Amino acid sequence: MKRTWTIIGVKDVPGSFKWYQSLLGLPETAPAHDYFGQILDTDGTVLLCLHQGGAHDHPSLASADRAEPGNGLLLFFRVDNFEVSLQNARTLVAQFEEEPNLNPATTTMEFSLRDPDGYYVTISALF
Fold it and tell me: What is the rounded CA–CA span in Å between residue 56 and residue 18?
């Protein structure tokens, strides 16, 4: 099995780390570094990597000041705990980008919101 590690540039790795763990109903842990962390599923699978923008010489992570965060990127998570993620999301943001609804293409419930850096995040029920 091969897996993709999606890495996004963020302003505050520890803060974003906590935000994503809360949204996905994961146990709270600290990132490995103040400039990089991996959001892990309970089985150790990497779900998302957070990298401080401008911390290293990565061309596409130079600085949030040089590009609009999330432009051209949709973070789409399929979760087996949809209701938990929905409840958690309501405590993280004042407004959803898309209220919970049935997606006719996937025939699953989903909702969308923005993370602290402006990335568009969709949560979809696994079943």
Answer: 22
